[in-house]
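Researcher: Here's a chain I'd like modeled. Treat it as a single chain, no partners, no ligands.
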Amino acid sequence: MGIFSDIIPLMKKLEKDIYQLSEKNIIIQNTRNLAIAIAKRLNLKENKVEAGKMAAKKKEINQVEEAAKRARSKAKQAAKQARDTAQCAKQSRAAVKKAREDAIRNVPGKIGMLQWPKAFKENHNDDNKLVNLIF
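Model: Modeled as a single isolated chain. Structure tokens:
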């Protein structure tokens, strides 16, 4: 029994050490699990922050795109107005040129002088006389 008497206290000490190690292992495992949970939550928060940043960037990009669309629309409208104005000016120049040519053509014997066209002559019948008023 001498050998067993020496082994029993060692077995009890070993059992106690194993129990303490298992408690430490449980504490370590719990601490590890807690650290993992905290890391996951922090990661989720980081992901939410990143998602918020991305949403803000997307909103900013959308605002810039809308401003660009409005600018393009205004540019198209201005170009259309410029084309319309140019067309009106072209028609006005053509009308002035035609009026000048009509005035020159309608004045016999005075070629090259600008006169009012015959369209402005008025015929009045007064006492059986034909009166031509030339403005």
